[in-house]
Amino acid sequence: MDFDIKRVLELAATLSTQDVFAQSLGVDENCFSAAKIVALVEKGAIDEDLSHLLSCITCVENTVQYAKTEYNLEYTGIHQRLRGTRSVGIFSNLLNPLFMRKNRREPSLAILGLPSRFFRVEDEKTKRISLTCNLFPAAEGDEWRVEPESLHIDGAIIAKKGTIYEQIDLTNDGKIDCLTISFVDGRLARRVRDGVANGQRVSDTIQVSGRFTGGTKEEFIAQARLEFVNPHVAEQLGLSA
Ligand SMILES: [Zn+2]
């Protein structure tokens, strides 16, 4: 058998890169790796990941820091892509009113926390879907407040006017790290409603957005991926009511 040292080195490089991304960045081996943090921003902090965030300020800081960096990359990226396209005129006309208004920035990213990735739907037609979630904003300053009236959900669940019922200071330093928010008057998006009615496990995302008070009134957005199931499917999965 031929021994291809170049190939072995290539493989070793790949493996060690994966190792680096899979290694804990926190205080012990239970802390989040870089790969995990990327996934948290995209899919939400769910179940034991949420419990870990609520008990480990190092992981909150790492995750929030990543969200800030990702936001800056994303923001510059969008502008570069737009500049490089011939349709820039059309796009900027479309986007101007939404994103590029003077003194208006893209929303910053936040991390959404949920107790379970399964969402049990008792009645898919109701307009009283309720959801409680945690929000870890990647705010620019240490001191931040969220305007309660600005909170809303889009995507698989649609609801306006969230209520902030808990402001959590994880380090007891007088600064808020996380909010607990609830929505009560939500409805399911049609695609989710139909799938749940047909007994499917519907995988879809929710986006929670809102605005900070004062200063720039900066907007933020957080996302999580959930699986929506009817009570029958929930029972098959062994989920409690
Ligand atoms: Zn940790």
How much strand content do the residues show?
A: 25-35%
Q: Which outline best applies? A: globular
Largest sheet: 7 strands, mixed, barrel
Helical proportion?
25-40%
Quick overview of this protein structure:
By secondary structure, the protein is of the alpha+beta class. The chain has seven helices and ten strands.
Characterize the structure shown:
By secondary structure, this protein is of the alpha+beta class. The protein has one domain. 34% of the residues lie in helices and 28% in strands. A seven-stranded mixed barrel has the order 2-4-8-6-5-9-10. Strand 9 and strand 10 form a beta hairpin. Helix 2 (34-43) crosses helix 4 (57-83). The longest helix is centred in the first third of the chain and has 27 residues, at 57-83. The protein binds zinc ion. The site of zinc ion (ZN) has 6 residues, from helix 4.
List keywords for this structure.
alpha+beta, 241 residues, binds zinc ion, seven-stranded mixed barrel, globular, 10 strands, 7 helices
Give the arrangement of secondary structure elements.
Blueprint: H1 5-22, H2 34-43, E1 45-46, H3 48-53, H4 57-83, H5 88-95, E2 108-114, E3 118-120, E4 129-137, E5 152-155, E6 157-160, E7 163-168, E8 178-188, H6 190-197, E9 202-211, E10 219-229, H7 231-236
Parallel strand pairs: 1-2, 2-10, 3-10
Antiparallel strand pairs: 2-4, 4-8, 5-6, 5-9, 6-8, 7-8, 9-10
